[in-house]
Amino acid sequence: GQQLNQSPQSMFIQEGEDVSMNCTSSSIFNTWLWYKQDPGEGPVLLIALYKAGELTSNGRLTAQFGITRKDSFLNISASIPSDVGIYFCAGLFQGGSEKLVFGKGTKLTVNP
Amino acid sequence: IAGITQAPTSQILAAGRRMTLRCTQDMRHNAMYWYRQDLGLGLRLIHYSNTAGTTGKGEVPDGYSVSRANTDDFPLTLASAVPSQTSVYFCASSPFDTSYNEQFFGPGTRLTVL
To answer: Which residues of B touch A44 (CB under 8 A)?
Structure first.
């Protein structure tokens, strides 16, 4: 089945640093989504990408849909303490099962 | 606007008991989903429904059943709970059309089976 490899598994950074995480797949996806999950809460959608090569920003967050359609990255600039959480990528191949495939998450810790 | 609500927030259950987790959305989304989240395993799809009246099996459906009598509600039932079903359960919904398939998640139900 389709699988996503998300890396890194965890990151420990200082406040103010930039962060980058990525997801790769052996399958082609038509949609990439990035979610953030705070402790004790459900995942919240951050950015949705629908076109290969697309670069989309949401405040300090920037995500790109890889040109091969098999990867995506998420960058966070000038990190702040509230960026702490687990970030998940998810891919969807439309025209197939229409079900999302999730990465296992990147746990981000920001030291003030 | 509530979005997606789940009940209960948490539950401790004796093994062998029957339990229904409730999920309601007010966004008129066509599709709904149930996931379980376990440490190190990420989010795994249990069951899904692309539209009212239809359901399908996800990655880990055994021991769970669902129904979709209407657009808004998608209950998940554990007929006879076992300790391996201890997990955090998330319900999600999406519009499910050809151009817009973002999934939106509820706050989760933390279930402990003893």
So the answer is: 105
